Amino acid sequence: MSSLKRRLSIGLTFTLSLLILLQWALITLVIERVTETQLLERLESETEGLLASVEINPDGSFDLSSLRLSSLYQRPFSGHYYVVCTEKICKQSRSLWDESLTIEQLASGQKRQTLIDGPNEERLFSLQRGYFKQGQSLTIMVGQNISELNEDISHFQMLYSLVSGIGLIVLLIIQWLIVGKALQPLQRLQQQLSRLRRGETEKIETQGPEEIQPMIQELNRLLVTMTRKTQRSRAALGNLAHALKTRLTLLNQTAESSELKTLPNMQKALHQVSRDMGQTIERELKRARLLGSPMPGQKVDLEHEIAELSRTLQLLYRDKSPVIDWEIEPDLQFFGDREDLLEMLGNLLENACKWCRKRVNITVYQNHYCYFVVEDDGQGCDESKLSQLPQRGFRADESVPGSGLGLAIVSDIVESYSGEMLFSRSAMGGLKVEVRLPLIV
Amino acid sequence: MRILLVEDDVLMGPTLQNALSQAGYAVDLSVDGIDAEALGDIEPYDLIVLDLGLPKRSGMEVLQNWRHRNNHVPVVILTARGSWEEKVQGFKAGADDYVAKPFQTEELLARISAVLKRSSGTSGGPLQVAGLLLDEDAQSVKLKDGRFFNLTGTEFRLLRYFMLHPGQVISKSRLTEHVYEYDSDRDSNVIEVYVNRLRQKVGTDLIQTRRGQGYIFGSA
Fold first, then answer.
1. A253 vs B15: CB contact, 8 Å cut-off?
2. Fold type of domain A298-438
3. Which of A7, A44, B52, B104 is a good FRET partner for B39, with 20 to 30 A between their CA atoms?
4. Would the ipTM clear 0.90, i.e. be above it?
5. Rounded to two decimals, what is the model's pTM?
């Protein structure tokens, strides 16, 4: 998965590093250039000075008037040296002491700058020029020890690299923080969305920056549309069911009319047809509702819903007055559609109430999944029939009235939640239905 | 027994009203929520059959309003939705029973009869008071000595009302209210005639006259 933060960070790190590297290289280069130029200028003026102080004797020898020369040339191994040569003789500065520098004769006007080895393993930056003075060709070389200068430069470079490196790290940290800060609204949005999924809120409340706000608005608009669509389609389904079932009741009444009373088979057949159609409508509408349920899961108050269901069932089975005990793990949070849950538990509990002698137990607990266990103390069901229970219209015992639809509906609901339903014999004697649903749908 | 039937379907309402009348109930029909709510508050019904999907005001709301005003008339809900949410809501709102469409008339009659018996404090099963056994399906009565009489419609209605309220002084006007429909011609003198005919069948001692007050059933 590509991370926005990582991508931004990598991009920014790369550009920042490149920038810092480039300016480091540029500064280093410029400093080297400037030093060299300055050095060259100085050496050039030195050569000019030397040329001025050369006095050619008539015999072809020459003298250097030391007055005009810097004292640096007098101190031995001062780092500043010169050599002046005619075609016959060479004179070198006193600072060279017993060392000597070999030079090549240059024609007048020629100029050469080189790096040569000097005395005491010095590195000399030297400028060599050819002149023509008073009928004599002269070659003057001036050298300066640059070892120290080089050392200074590399010292500076080291310091500068260090500062650049630290600067780069500081910049990277700052940009990382900025990226983190800039992406915070997205994190808040994500938190809101998961709150929405858990049903703790109905719309996204967080405010985002200009770039994200339109997205939040669109999401909210979508939520409203979806909710409205769901409500509308549920209402339409309800109306359809109402109309069809009312007509079916009318069909029943027609079958009971005095004209048809004389034809009991006909009457029975009509009743059978209307019952089958009623069941088909019931189950298909419930399935459609399940499939077309785009609403995010809502937090359901299990304790409350189960208590209400139990009360309803006790009223429905007033003659039997079953004792319905429930045990719900505290802090258990089930997220899903309240109506689905009521439908599922209602059918399971009604089934249990129908078959029980006196007691019905419902246990809800959480262990990676959400478990709903409904048991009764009735006669139970043959092992061989257990697997057939959730089939539509299958009735394990034909002697008790019922449609055989309840467990089929439960099975549809469980399936729509990607859950599982297991049947077994309860320790209480009757049937034990265990429904396992994922915690977050 | 007087019943208010609240059903908006133009075909089903009258058909059901007819079926209930044949079963020996005085039935008024109402086709919308507001009208039904007013009737339920004004008229002394013994039971109300209430469809939930009503125009103008939903059945659930009507029921809640009645209960809110301490109107405890027994109510059997008719609904087409059949969802558990609605069942829970219905019972919470104060319904006494619940019949899901499509139903057979027989089923509705059984529920109505059970709720009526429960609301009058009689135990379930066939109605049996003071040695009389009332067969509600055949509309006939069996006496202690084994004699057996078929009852006319009004006789059946009267006897069922007496049997569901044994030992109570019941005025003639109360009998009229609970035995006849809203728009029928109510003449309390006719009641006297019917009570006398009933006495001839079940025995004069069972229905005594309290002068100026009315009748009392089964106190002897």
1. yes
2. Heat Shock Protein 90 (3.30.565)
3. B104
4. no
5. 0.63
